[in-house]
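dumping this here before i forget
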Amino acid sequence: MKHCVSVAGLIAACCVTSGAFAQADVTLADPNDVSNYGLVGNIRGYAWGSRTCNIGNQVLLWQNNGTPGLAMNLHRIHNGRFQQVGWSFVKLACCAASSQFAACGTCQGGGGGLGIGCLDTYSSGWNGGQSRLGPRSAMNASTGAFQAHNPPAGTTNAIFRRLQVLDSDVNTTAAGNFQGARYISEGVYVASDESASGRMNNATYRPLNMTDATNRTFALTGTPVIGTPAIQSWRDHGLGLNVPDTSVTISQIDVPGTGAAAEGRFWYGFKARDLGNGRWLYDYAVFNLNSDRSGGSLEIPIPCGVTVTNAGFSSPWYHSGEVYNSDPWAVSISSNSIKWETAQKFSTNVNANAIRWGSTFSFWFEASTPPATNQLGMLGLFKPQAGGVASVALTLTAPGPRTNVACDGIDFNRNSVFPEDQDVIDFFNVLAGGPCPYSGVCDIDFNNNCIFPEDRDVTAFFDVLAGATCQ
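structure:
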């Protein structure tokens, strides 16, 4: 049984010890149970329970209908790809019952909040209470600021504001598309009285089992990974429970702030697979732990001349009146990169579908060359900040350059007569800016190294004309 304390009491406690609250540190020790709210239309509703720790050295503020707040997410690993398929509104606090739990340390108790080294437990049924679920847009995960929560006047159905997922995304039966898929639960906290460093451990994941494929019923399995987001499971459980996929790399990048502390942190992962027949599949995922500036674009370098096809994108869709839209990102392919970006810029729509805190976006494409390591991708930031950076660099794997590329043919004018002086004349005419001698576009990058015009194109032309090997 939980016993709520008054908001006035919490405010009084905050005022007495406000200088020390920066060292409070919330983390999710375990999403300890699952509620399944059934099917409404083609959408299912869920909620996770929570065992929550204060691992800091000061009492953690715990406000009725306020801080801290827990966002619940559902992820899927299938055929080597990691995607977020569901999310909930934020379960707001009621009241803290400080108790002992090994993962939290030694509980020292504490009035007015969650005590140092103490545990507070909520069931999934409590966390799924719709009047306690507030919009993510009302919280700034970078600063910990909470806007006032106005509970809904009434619920429209059994899944309103709860963790929602398309029924087709959790269909593991023979009739569905995701036989053999693995699912991962995740909880992400926001707390108003943590330091910037304390906010970096606010996500925890734990694998799930599908115990009833017909009713899409989940049960928790394995061990919770405290302070680590679900994207890490792509590697740690990529080939099965506790069977790592070593072809997946997981990294982190902090967004520089205007002061000493980072503005927020992104996690990202990537994987490349040989599809055969000269094709490679590249997968990327980006998780925003707590950056208010959010992700607005992802650009992956592509060497000149490399063919890119079958580009794809997925993001969790918003529901239940959340103000953000769910428009898919636009993709563009140039001579040196592939880029995804929000359909609208911040200047046009502040509620565009950016990579907001507590969410993961996935990206993929096929390319005609095998991977090269230590390439630099760019994560563009959605929300401008005076004096702040516009993007952050991601060190990752991307398509490598072409190898053993042949030179063009010496029948430059395509009249089927070669070798002849006219091919030489026409080549130099086009090199100097003259017209192409046939209907089309002439290619003066004779050695196909994607650098033109250059002396090596001329040298290669004469080498091949003389019967030598292409250089």
